[in-house]
Amino acid sequence: MYSLHAITNSVQNWLNARLSSTWVLIIESLIVIVLAIALFAALGLILVWLERKVAAHMQIRLGPNRLGPAGIFQTSADTLKLILKEGLTPDGADKFLFNFAPFVVMIVAMLLLAPIAFANGFQIWNINIGVLYISAISSLSVIGILIAGWASNNKYSLLGAMRSGAQIVSYELSAGLSILTIVVLTGSLQMTDIVQAQQNGWWIFKGHIPVIIAFIIFIIAATAETNRAPFDLAEAESELTAGFHTEYSGMKFALFFLAEYINIFIVCAIGATLFLGGWMPFHMGNWTQFNHVMDFIPSSIWFFGKTFFLIFLIMWFRWTFPRLRVDQLLNLEWKYLLPVSLFNLLLVTLIAIMNWHF
Amino acid sequence: MWTDFLILMKQEMAVIAMIFILLFMKLGRDRSNESFMNTMNVLLLLNLILGFVFNHEGILFNEMFRTSRLIAFEKNILNLAMLIISLQSYSWLKTNKHVPEFYILMLSSLLGMFFMISSGNLLMFYLGLEMSTIPLAAAANFDLTKRRSSEGAMKLIFSSAFSSACLLFGISMLYGTTGTLVFSELPHLINNNPLQLFAFILIIAGFAFKISVVPFHLWTADVYEGAPVAVTSFLSVVSKGAVLFAFVSVLYTVFSPLAKVWYNMLFILSLLTIITGNLFAIRQENFKRFLAFSSIAQVGFILVGISRSSDISTTSVIYFVLIYVFSNLAAFGVVSLVTAVTGKENISDYKGFYKTNPGLSWVLTIALFSLAGVPPTAGFFGKFFLLIAGAGKGNYVLISIAAVNIVISLYYYLRVVKAIFMDANPTPLPSIRTPLMPKLAFIVCVAGAVTIGVVSPVYDYIYSLIVLR
Amino acid sequence: MGTAQILFWSLTALALISAIMVLVSKNPVYSVLWLIVVFFAISGHYILLNAQFLAIVNLIVYAGAIMVLFLFVIMLMNLNTETEPQKSIWMKFFGVVAGGLLLSFFISFVISSADLKGKSAQLKEGEIGLIKTLGKALFNDYVIPFEIASILFLSAMVGAVVIGKKD
């Protein structure tokens, strides 16, 4: 079947044959930029629709079903509405920072797309510290949220931004430690190495107990980092109006909204890459026939399938668990998740040294 | 190999074990303050005894950690001071809400000092220095309800952060021009590069801050006054002593090629320190501020002793720090007890102290005499040896000015003694019954202050440790 | 000029300009944001020297955690120029003189230092900054500072909780 790898190779050869190398670089960068923006737009549309449909069916109702078959054009209509809305800057707000904050959040989301491998060989930047790069850039997203809350000149926005910032900074720790368990087992920080190491089975099956614990902690931490329920105290309507993006309207609000869904996609993509094998099909040990059969399904479908499964899981959480208060939330991280993650790291190091994993 | 580490680093391991015992005790069931204090005092006594046995020499981890019998002795002096401070702060800690945290902070600071003294690498030295400063900055604020305390702690944090930054800048320039951080390799690589001279000045600035040498002493009075007395005594004795040990070691090993440069510098700094300390101490009303300025003057004398770089000056410095431990802690002990019971800190409150508390006033008098350098007490011998060491270079101007200043310092020390014994006071301080622990501490301090001067094997023992190093 | 040179000079200019803007900004939040730009520039320098781990850890720790802490405190304090106490003009004058003297001394020392002339750092090569080498050095030669730093953090946390806890 067609693989994205073949397409990229053929495009690269075609370009190299015709133009000089700097032009090739520029044109390839432009292609990547266009594709990334297209991915963002497509993902935004799909994820918002998915959220509304999943929410609806969990609540035994239908959700959007008027615009287009099963309501798939609903999000486009919403986007059109948001673009046409008046973008209001509150009086006394810091104009430069107020306008700058949504872009910071968007830039961070875009930077995080770089090391993710969407299919075999289809990765924007394969740096040799891929996992660490992800931790670094996701820790910069807090700054965008704090600036947004502060620049709104609104007490409740500031409080919401502080709560959101404290929550993200705390849960980064557990997320980082769970990512470290996979790094210990693989021995490399590079995303391609991690995916290749799952050639004979996904880490969640190979590295049994500690990786399952790490996976659970990662999912919880990822839900908290993206401010999703049940950790959405900072932006729930009944709590602080809308937290740090209360004062934003129109296109700027659309950017925040989009960035939140892109963040969900990215953390699920990272979880899928590290724990569920990324684009690697479901192989089992050295059952070569079985693996060969599994290889027929293209790697991009594997990747998106796993990612959307995790996204569905996170959306499922929203309608299953009640919302946590902010002190319960921080308690959960510092008194429960962090000690468990630290102990888990010790456990996985022991297992890696003793070679007790598959 | 394992036992190698454990035995060579036994004192550090002991302090780390104490910190963890405290943490687990705190996390366990509810205990009274007395049980914490009694446990800690016993453990500190065991720690002190441990310091005398199994002393080996060795270098670990590529010169990150050096130990010798001299260094073990220096660490034991600090252990002794810690034990005495812990005994003396009994009355203050009985009613305090954060007893285990107090001990954890003090022990972490002590641990940092141990690593600083036994470091053979500028990186480890800096880390030890930071580790000794940061818990003290938190502990200086231990009287959470008083504003003075917070002010003192703020000043300590800001000043120590700035001076650490200067020290680190100097260290990084030294590394940039020589390419190594190891003490034993640095002297061969120091040529007369002006950048190295600049680095040297910055490093001396960092040190001078910690030992309160005069242009860098501005934090001392306010921090000593604001912090609780136990923390003040820790700062004045343990912190100063540890940094002095490290200073002597760094100056003599790393900067030995620059000896002519720092001789003149120490000459001027010591004169400035002694004169400023004396002048300001004359006017003080608060007892803790008074002791702060007196300790600044004592450091001036120590600098006189350091200025001649030889084994005799190292011996005299260590000997003086030992004596200083006893005399200073005796004085601070009395202040601690009086402050904990009555809350009064001014010298004028001590008028007529003899009528109500004869025992304590004798302890305070012996301590003040020893600090002043009056002959039968040990302080006289300490200053005597320092001045002899300083006179070795033949600079009699320095010695004569120092001697004159000893006489000037007698004035302000005797002023306090006069207030205790001779001034009448209609409302003197109430009669204070000393609990057992502070009583033990006072006995040790007074015994030390009186006998160490006349017992000559102590000086000879220290000298032998240095010569055989 | 090669790409490395262009990158070096532009990152340096960015770092210096941002550092000056940190001092000059009237709004403290702007100062913190300019400081974040300084850290990005310094991380860029580290990447040029092939110390990738150091660059990323610089971003994680400094720009991601410490600056967030600064932002928390400054945003809650609501500082502006009216509430700042102004020092006397003489203090400012002598401060400028002292700072300028220090700068001139430093520059003269660097210029007259013979063994620093003409040396340039190795760009984009060298094994020192790679994580493997760093990890090995950290756990063999530098293990004592590494472990002691953790006890330092523990005691700093204990101190912070003692001062800050409200009860």
From TrEMBL, chain A:
It is an enzyme of class 7 (translocase). It is a multi-pass membrane protein. Its EC number is 7.1.1.-. Its main location: membrane. Keywords: Cell membrane, Membrane, NAD, Oxidoreductase, Quinone, Translocase, Transmembrane, Transmembrane helix, Ubiquinone. It catalyses: a quinone + NADH + 5 H(+)(in) = a quinol + NAD(+) + 4 H(+)(out). It comes from the Bacteria. Pfam families: NADHdh (PF00146). It is found in: Cell membrane; Membrane. GO terms for molecular function: NADH dehydrogenase (quinone) (non-electrogenic) activity. The chain crosses the membrane at residues 23-50, 96-118, 130-152, 173-191, 203-224, 253-276, 296-316, 336-356. NDH-1 shuttles electrons from NADH, via FMN and iron-sulfur (Fe-S) centers, to quinones in the respiratory chain. The immediate electron acceptor for the enzyme in this species is believed to be ubiquinone. Couples the redox reaction to proton translocation (for every two electrons transferred, four hydrogen ions are translocated across the cytoplasmic membrane), and thus conserves the redox energy in a proton gradient. This subunit may bind ubiquinone. NDH-1 is composed of 14 different subunits. Subunits NuoA, H, J, K, L, M, N constitute the membrane sector of the complex. HAMAP family: NDH1_NuoH. Belongs to the complex I subunit 1 family. This is NADH-quinone oxidoreductase subunit H. It comes from Danxiaibacter flavus. The gene is nuoH.
From TrEMBL, chain B:
Its main location: membrane. Signal peptide: none annotated. Its EC number is 7.1.1.-. It comes from the Bacteria. It is found in: Cell membrane; Endomembrane system; Membrane. HAMAP family: NDH1_NuoN_1. Belongs to the complex I subunit 2 family. NDH-1 shuttles electrons from NADH, via FMN and iron-sulfur (Fe-S) centers, to quinones in the respiratory chain. The immediate electron acceptor for the enzyme in this species is believed to be a menaquinone. Couples the redox reaction to proton translocation (for every two electrons transferred, four hydrogen ions are translocated across the cytoplasmic membrane), and thus conserves the redox energy in a proton gradient. NDH-1 is composed of 14 different subunits. Subunits NuoA, H, J, K, L, M, N constitute the membrane sector of the complex. This is NADH-quinone oxidoreductase subunit N. The gene is nuoN.
From TrEMBL, chain C:
It comes from Danxiaibacter flavus. Its main location: membrane. It is a multi-pass membrane protein. Keywords: Cell membrane, Membrane, NAD, Quinone, Transmembrane, Transmembrane helix. Its EC number is 7.1.1.-. This is NADH-quinone oxidoreductase subunit J. It catalyses: a quinone + NADH + 5 H(+)(in) = a quinol + NAD(+) + 4 H(+)(out). NDH-1 shuttles electrons from NADH, via FMN and iron-sulfur (Fe-S) centers, to quinones in the respiratory chain. Couples the redox reaction to proton translocation (for every two electrons transferred, four hydrogen ions are translocated across the cytoplasmic membrane), and thus conserves the redox energy in a proton gradient. The chain crosses the membrane at residues 6-24, 31-49, 55-77, 89-111, 142-163. Pfam families: Oxidored_q3 (PF00499). Belongs to the complex I subunit 6 family. It is found in: Cell membrane. Signal peptide: none annotated.
